[in-house]
Amino acid sequence: MESGEIIPLTAEQSERLAVLFDAYGDRLVRFAYSRLSGTRMGNGEAWALAEDVVQSMWVRVARSGATDVLGHPEWSETEIRKVLFVRVKREIAEHFALMRSSETAVDWTEPATCNTLCPLLPNQCAWVDLPDYLARMVASLPEREREALLLKLDGMPHTAMGERLGCSASTADRLAKTAILLLQIDNPELSCSPVAMESLPEWEQRALAAQSPAQREVLLRLDDVARGALLLSGEAPTRDIAQRLGVSRERVMGATVCAPVLRALGAEDMERAA
């Protein structure tokens, strides 16, 4: 917080901020300390930094006013807790990102280097916290899917995501999941190890055999629902696919929208997937 800065809050927002601080202040500091105490810094230094990052988080919440937790009294305790704890992880990540910027240059475009040297960056983090190689992958996503994914990674509840995106909560969640699937299709290294083709049901084996090697390689890395929905895409309505797979129609729609990306895979993609 800048010296002399006065953050304009309504009486209701000030009261809500005080309530949240009383309920979560100490817990957030202990959480931040638990994230920092495993580093090489001493316990005293880790505790002092934990207090600083949590204070910085509260300042950001206050500055955001009605656009953040202060403006959503209808959020449940679970939703509020998730948002606040994710924000603390972001503050820690930004602290270490600033430290990196003043040190010897490192090739942050290399995944192995980035994953080794960024242990404090949270798995669920917003755009600013993503390692460079992941940020480039996310940047290539369609706009709505990318925005939904970043909102979800920032800990925003589905209802608030929908309000921001101008859609329902379920659609917002589907857009975020579609973004993840698009990333997995285009970047196989983000997916699981491929399953053995012979371990799958006969209909899947036949459908996979009809795919190109690149498409088959990607499909074998996806989860059962995504793989099944993509294999059945175009052959039946999404409602029928959902019934056959025993999942919701929303989940099927989130997968089948990725079918054009899968069909576009070529030989170059096959080499990268291998």
Automatic annotation (TrEMBL):
SUPFAM superfamilies linked to this entry: Sigma3 and sigma4 domains of RNA polymerase sigma factors
Name of the protein described by the UniProt record: RNA polymerase sigma factor 70 region 4 type 2 domain-containing protein
Protein family: Belongs to the sigma-70 factor family. ECF subfamily.
Ranges of residues in domain RNA polymerase sigma factor 70 region 4 type: 133-175
GO MF, one annotated term: sigma factor activity
Keyword list, A-Z: Sigma factor, Transcription, Transcription regulation
UniProt key word DNA damage: no
Cross-referenced InterPro entries: RNA_pol_sigma70_r4_t2 (IPR013249), RNA_pol_sigma_r3/r4-like (IPR013324), WH-like_DNA-bd_sf (IPR036388)
GO terms for biological process, alphabetical: DNA-templated transcription initiation
